[in-house]
Amino acid sequence: QLQLVESGGGLVQPGGSLRLSCAASVLTVEYYGLGWFRQVPGKEREGVACISSTGRTTTYADSVKGRFTISRDNAAYMVYLQMSSLKPEDTGVYYCAATLGPPTLQGSWNYWGQGTQVTVSS
């Protein structure tokens, strides 16, 4: 089975930056689209960013465009989310996800990590 483990979450001030990492435990990582989602208790999970299996195509939620960057290193079995100009509304649990299908923010994602907490507060 594919396993995903997130790291890099923490407490940052508004306007600050943070980089999240996700390690994918699967030999054929290059076959999977990868993405980042976030969730606040009581709210629906929100797609943040996703990247194609080759890394050539990226998609972002409107709320994070220009501030977040998703990238992947297939040789290292890693996907990253670089977050800049963070806002309090970016607070939430961030999850790494993988799919063998088309990677879209509204699509089906069947593999999930445990999540890492990101808190943006003064």
How far apart the termini lie comes to 40 Å
Describe the biggest sheet?
7 strands, mixed
Proportion of β residues? over 45%
Helicity, in percent? under 10%
Shape: globular
Structural category? mainly beta
Mean pLDDT: 96
Low-confidence stretches: none
Give an overview in words.
- The protein is globular, with a radius of gyration of 13 Å.
- A hairpin with a 6-residue loop joins strand 4 (33-39) and strand 5 (46-51).
- It has strands at 3-7, 10-12, 18-25, 33-39, 46-51, 58-60, 68-73, 78-83, 92-99, 111-112, 116-120.
- It is 0% helix and 48% strand.
Summarize the structure.
Helix content is 0%, strand content 48%. The protein has 122 residues and is mostly beta strands.
Core attributes:
single chain; 122 residues; mainly beta
Topology overview:
Elements: E1 3-7, E2 10-12, E3 18-25, E4 33-39, E5 46-51, E6 58-60, E7 68-73, E8 78-83, E9 92-99, E10 111-112, E11 116-120
Parallel strand pairs: 2-11
Antiparallel strand pairs: 1-3, 3-8, 4-5, 4-9, 5-6, 7-8, 9-10, 9-11
